[in-house]
Structures are given as C-alpha cells and as structure tokens.
Amino acid sequence: MSDIFTYLNQKEVIDSIVLIGSMALFFVGLFGLLSQKHIIKIFISISIMEISIFLLFVGSTFVKGYTAPILGDGFEKFVGMNDPIPHAMILTAIVIGMAVFALGMSFAIEYYKLTGITDIDKMREMRR
Amino acid sequence: MSSIYFIALPLLFGFAVPILSRFGKNSVAYSSAIMQLALLYLAYSMISMPNSVVEVIAINPPLGISLVANKVSVAFVLLFTLLMSLFSIYYLDIRRTKPYKDENKFFILINMLLASAIGLVLSSDIFNIYVFFEIAGISAYILSAYEGSAKAYEAGIKYLITGMIASIFLVFAIALIYIHLGSLNLAVLSERFMTLPSEMKLLISMLLFIGFGFKVEIFPLNFWVTDVYEGSSTLVNGLFSSIVVKAYLFVFFHIFYLFIPSGEYGSFLVMVGAITMIVAETVALKQTNLKRIFAYSSLGQIGFIFSTLTLESSSAVTAAIFIVIAHSIAKLAIFLTITIIEHSSGSVDISTLRHIKSPFVVTIFIVAMVSLLGLPPLLGFTGKFLSLKSFAVSAEFLPLTIIIIASVIESVYYFKLVGLLLDRESERKPLPTSLIQKSILSLLILILVVVGVAPWIISPYIDQASHMMLDNSLYISTLLGAGK
Questions:
Q1: Do the beta carbons of residue B271 and residue B213 sit within 8 Å?
Q2: pLDDT tops 90 at residue B80
Q3: Count of CB atoms within 10 A of residue B409's CB?
C-alpha cells in the first residue's frame, strides 16, 4: 500500500494527475457549452471551463513540501516557499470571473422577465 | 509627465460620481466631459516628449507593474481621448432631448471603457493586459445592454458569452506562458518566447489568437458582432467601433510583434484578415439595417487593418495607423449621424435615408463613407494607398487581390447608400440638427479632410511610431532599464 503512496507522491505523477484532471474538467465544460440550450446552464458550463484552467495553473505551479510565503516568523524560513504569483493571479481571475458570471445571470434574468425565454436558440430579437 | 493619470482619473471619476451628483442634475455630465478634455490635453502634451516614458508602480520591472508611454501608445491614447471627449460633448447635447435612464451609471461606464482601453495600450505586463481586457469587456457588456429592451439584453448576453469564452482562452495562454517562461513582463517574455519548443509555441499562439480573436472580431470568431451592434444603442456602437476594437487590435499586434519577431504565422494571419474583409463586405451587401451595414463595414475594415499589420514592415504599420485613425473618426461620425436620423424618424432602416432633407447630414454621411472607401483627397485614401503599396512591396499578391475585390464590393453598397441619400424623387422631411451636433460632426469631418489633403502634418510622427512599434530591442531596453 505504501508503494502506491510513494508512487503517487512523485512530482511527475502529481503533475499528470493535475493536467489530466483539469483537462477532463475543461472538456466537461466545453461539452456543456456546446450541448446545453438554457442560458444559465451555458453560464455554468463556461464557469466550469474557467475553473479547470485555474486548477491547472495553481496545481502545476504548486511544489509539494514547500510552504506558502507568509513571513510571520521573522524571515527565518525564507527558503522553500511556493511561488506566490500564480495564487495572486488566480485570485484576481476568480474575482473577475465571478463578477462576469453574476452580470451574465442578471442579464439572463432581466431578459427572462421581458420575454419569458430561457432557451438560447429562441433568442431571435434580431433579424437574420 | 506621468501616464498613470490616464487610467487613474477616469476610474477615480467613477468613485466620485455619487458625490458629484449631489451638486445638481448636470454636474456629472459636465465634469465627465471636462475630465476627458483634461486627459486630451495631457495626451497632447505627451506627444512632444523625445523618449519613451516608463511609469513604474512600486517595484521596478521585471517584477513590478509598469506602464510604457512611447510614440505608438501615446498616439493611440491621444486618438481615444479625442474621440471620447468629442463623444461626451455630443452626448451633452443628446441628453437634453433623449437622455439615457440612470445617466450617472452611463458616465461611470464610458469612463471605465476609456480607462481600460488606455490601460490595454499602455500596459507592459500580460496579466495586466488580461485585467484591462476584462474591465473593457464588462463595461462594454453593460453598455450594450444599457437601453434595457429585450433586444439590448440579447445583445448583452451574446457579447458576454463570447467575452467569457475569450477570457478563458487568454487565461489559459497566460497560465502556460507563466509555467514555461516564469515571467509576465512583456520585455522578458519577448526575450524568452522564441526559446520555447515549437509545439508549445504553437499552442500558446493559438490560444492567444482565439482569446484575442473574439475581441479583435476576426473571421470566424466574429459571428456575434453584428447582433451586438444591432441590439445596443447607436451612440454606443460608435464607441465600440472606434475605441474598443482599436485597443484590442493594438494590444494583439503589440504582443504578436514582441513574441514572434520572425513573423512565423504571418502568412496564415494575412489570409485570415483578407478573408474577414471579403466575407464581411459580401454579407453587408444584403443588409437593410443601417447599424448592421456599418457593423459589417467595421468588420471589413478591421480585416483590412489586421492583414496590413501582419506584414510586419514599418511602412505597413504606418499605413495601418493611418487607417485606424481614418476609420475611427469616420465611423464615429457615421454612428453619431445615424443617432440623429434614428431620433427623428425612429427607424434605422436604409429607406429612412430617402426621406432626409438636410444638406449638412447628407454631406457628413457621404464624406465619411468616401473616406472609409479610401478615395482621395480624404484621410482614408492615405492609409489605403500606403497599405496597398506595402502589400505589393511584400509580394503578398493573393491577399492583395482579395482586398481589392472586397473594396469593390464595399463600394457597391456605399454607393447604394449615397444613391438613396441623393434620390431626387422621394419626399423629404427636414432633419433638425443642433449647433453642438453640427460643430462636433464638422470637426470630425474637418480632421478627415485636412489631414487627408496634407498627410505630412502627422506622417513624421506616425513614421517614428511605426519604427518604435517594430523595434523590440528598444522596447526591451527601455522597459528593463527603467528605474535603474
């Protein structure tokens, strides 16, 4: 049993799990985007795609055994820290993604109030 | 002179709106216009500076964030502030008769749009570019849904979905760039990008192309554009066509020149631009809605600018900057004129052009369209002539042929519109235009005519700008040398 854990703890294995997992999630989202017709489901699918990219980024820049660079110990353990930049970037991107998602939901709700339509294929206010 | 004001002032204005709105009904509108004029003056004063100015924020590059104001970016900043302040003054007049509901938010949004467009142009950090990409996106989504009709919300939803997909691909590209190259600074990335393995380089370039392609409105990623133009209000269309797209175009090619100086994917991109142009112009022939026609015409012009910029020669970049200026000014004039027509007749069908009796509006319309078409002596001609010349010099004859065929198609529907405007047999109603409207529109047309007749007023500056845009080593040394 411990052999499995040592195998799983290797950096290459962790990296491939992160890569395969996040790409699988990406395609789940892409499938949802292409197959769903409900506006809110489409927004959710896009959010899943977005989150898969965040996972990939944070997962592949994370080094096992290192700590987050929180310098509460008087600069004694300045070595062996994880790169903080990806975390900062992903936090920003999550906030932006959430804001856009909320905006999209409010558009969808207002549109529903005006027309009663939730199906993206029936959105035909414009002439073709 | 600091370039941070261009981003900070419009954003601070947004925070000040609740306070300003207490000083009376007009105070927000007037202070927005005054602030934009101040930014215009600031941008104008930066034109004469001899060298690039790097504004370092807190930490020196490559670790910190910095803004680079060189000849190219200042030219774009000047263009954006000029168009936005003219737009604001024009809106001061419109709002007396047909104001938007909840106007204060409208002023916050247009200033956010200005700040983010300028931020896209000035940023030297790819993650900052992503942030401004999103701010510009969010303000544009809300502006397109601003009228609050079902049509407007549909446009907003379509714009938002494509924008979200674009941002996913951009974040993916940025993540891969950071994982493999360990930096976000454009100068550092420019030095390291060519060392990537070719598969990874192709993957990142494709992700960047898709991410920006949606926003730059390139075929086949531009299916949403005309619906957004039709659904959103005509005034806002002018901003989309003259400011937002141009900022995205600039930043796409800024990154393209820095990352791939050898022009590896140039032959692919030049065809993408040419195909965008011919598809858009062909579809435009069948349209009967003025807003849709000019949306397709914007797409066509953007395809033209796109394929010109992929040539990567300094004469081509000069030509492209000329076309950008000519197109932005002419399109803003056209959309502002359509606003007058829409407000008086309530329709944007092309048949309304038959019933206008206003020599002024007809003149503005025709001069702007002739400039878009690229006929002398207007500014559009200078850009088109230089561009076709640089195509011939680079021996890109297939795209050149496609572009010339597309221009012929373009002239067909423009002259159809001119024919409707000058039709003698129809009944015509006078179209009232106020003094402010007249002066803003005449100013825009005057720029087209004067600079078109005497392009040497701005051509030395644009020549320097295009050299600077292609000179990667200069960019790297200015950016990395900053603060030392």
A1: no
A2: yes
A3: 18
Q: What is the CATH number of the domain that holds A23?
A: 1.10.287.3510
A84 domain residue, yes or no = yes
Question: What's the complex ipTM?
Answer: 0.91
Beta bridge partners of A119: A38
Could A111 and B150 be called an inter-chain contact, meaning their C-beta atoms sit closer than 8 Å?
Answer: yes
**pLDDT tens figures, B211-258:** 999 999 888 888 888 889 988 988 899 999 999 999 999 999 999 999
Token pair of B94, please? 């419109």
Q: Where in the sequence is the domain holding A41, given as residue range(s)? A: 2-122
Q: Cβ B127–A126 below 8 Å, yes or no?
A: no
pLDDT digit string, tens, across residues B289-307: 888 999 999 999 999 999 9
Task: Establish if A128 belongs to a structural domain.
Answer: no
Q: Which of B148, B157, B172 sits opposite A53 (nearest CB)?
A: B172
Domain ranges of chain B: 265-453
- Alpha carbons B77 and B112: distance in angstroms, whole number: 14
User: Structural domain tally of chain A?
Assistant: 1
| Residue from B65, B82, B152 nearest B117 by CA | B82
B432 CB-side CA count, 13 A: 6
Whether residues B130 and A93 touch (CB distance < 8 A) is answered with yes
Structure tokens at B45: 């004063």
Q: Which of B284, B363, B378, B277 is nearest to B326 (CA)?
A: B378
- With bands split at pLDDT 50, 70 and 90, how would you rate the model's confidence at B419? confident
B154/A111 touch (CB, cutoff 8 Å), yes or no: yes
From residue B333, how far is each of A6, B169, B228 by CA, in Å?
A: 68, 34, 19
pTM, entire model: 0.93
Report the DSSP pairing between strands B356-357 and B429-430: parallel
A22 within domain boundaries: yes
Best of A19, A44, A101, A103 to substitute, by most chain B Cβ atoms within 10 angstroms, is: A103
User: Which tokens in the block code for residue B202?
Assistant: 């192709």
Q: Distance between CA atoms of B478 and B61, rounded to whole angstroms?
A: 10
